[in-house]
Design goal:
Two copies of one chain form a homodimer. By secondary structure, chain A is α+β, with helices and mostly antiparallel strands. Chain A has five helices and ten strands.
Chain lengths: ~170, ~170
């Protein structure tokens, strides 16, 4: 099995990837009760209970879900675990990849994220690998884009690309 | 909501944790077809297709599942993604936390892992947080222990503790 795979492996001939794909920077879970999840995760990691934020309404931060504008919101919390940030997400209604996951799978890991250097190029790379964008938006109206890809069937989870605005 | 949480946060008074809890070192997915998953993940990360290994029979590597010896095996593959290793697991029969996840949830993220310094102490810490061991074993008969904990309800995933044998 290993030998057959080695023969078909295309790693040597694959085009170069955005350097951001070298490191997973986020593991994100969808939860029904973010206050409880934040307590459990802070106790596990031995860090302070994180502040819980509410994202701005989707129409203010350009949320597109399945090709259409969505007013989705979510409660969010972030904890540090080394190179990786643990993100907790509780959907608050409106069409979103978060609510879709909760409906289809229940609570659990929704996505991992990569910090990419060139978002348009990295999106093309994801497209070339067969992954379509399913949900995108801005972290805030003032900074940063995120894009989720429909990669669950092939990879077992959603891939997110993150890209901060250039510093002014 | 944030203020109420801050008032109840016990982070300051919590006992010190094993330093291993500071960093997530592994994100592990259960798959039904590890050859296909290995191809998809190597293309995503831009790394070579990993070799696929088969774990030794559970009775040779001391697998205990739900309190009883199990002869569970799995196909395994590992890819590097910065500080984090992506582990792919295809259960090959026998009672295991991997097969249980596949039966209950289908494919997806099964666990994250921490490399702990003192396994017995870290297990006590997990117990104090309310998490029972559900599956444990050796990576190999010659090196290293792993323990999975029943943390899915509180944390949305299984937590694994890893501990290598002292160098001889």
């Amino acid at each position: 099995m290993g030998a057959a795979l080695a023969m078909t492996a295309g790693a040597q001939t694959a085009p170069p990837r955005d350097p951001g794909f070298k490191a997973i920077v986020q593991v994100a879970l969808v939860t029904r009760n973010i206050e409880a999840s934040a307590q459990h995760w802070s106790a596990l990691l031995g860090v302070e209970v994180p502040k819980i934020m509410t994202s701005r309404p989707g129409n203010e931060v350009h949320v597109i879900y399945q090709g259409k504008p969505s007013n989705a919101r979510a409660k969010l919390a972030f904890l540090s675990a080394g190179q990786v940030q643990v993100e907790l997400i509780q959907p608050l209604g409106g069409g979103s990849a978060w609510q879709q996951f909760l409906d289809e799978h229940g609570e659990g890991v929704h996505h991992i994220a990569f910090n990419v250097q060139n978002l348009a190029q990295a999106e093309s790379e994801m497209k070339a690998l067969g992954y379509d964008a399913i949900h995108s938006g801005r972290w805030d109206s003032d900074n940063g884009d995120y894009v989720y890809f429909d990669s669950t069937k092939a990879l077992g989870l959603v891939v997110e690309l993150l890209h901060g605005d250039p510093k002014k």
